[in-house]
Design a protein that fits this description.
Number of domains: 1
Number of helices: 4
Order of helices and strands: HHHH
Strand content: under 5%
CATH superfamily: EF-hand
Radius of gyration: 13 Å
CATH topology: Recoverin, domain 1
Distance between the termini: 26 Å
Number of strands: 0
Length: 88
Amino acid sequence: MVNIDWIIRQAVDDIWLQYDSDNSGSLDKEETRQFVYSILVTMNGADFQLDDRLFETTFKQVDVDESGMIEKDEMALLIRTLVGLVPD
């Protein structure tokens, strides 16, 4: 049986290895923007343009504690939401 919590933790750790460029333990807005952009380009092609207003709205929703940073638990919640494991 697959442990979804373990898979999500591994995914978050992989995201941090690639995008937490200052090793702060959190993703600042620019690091988060780079992550979101890379995912959306993968899904939509190289010509994809990231809408700044949509990004800002999404960032605020993911930044549950309003710290201006995305912590690992917030990213895990986002992933769980995106794959339909928690109600929105």
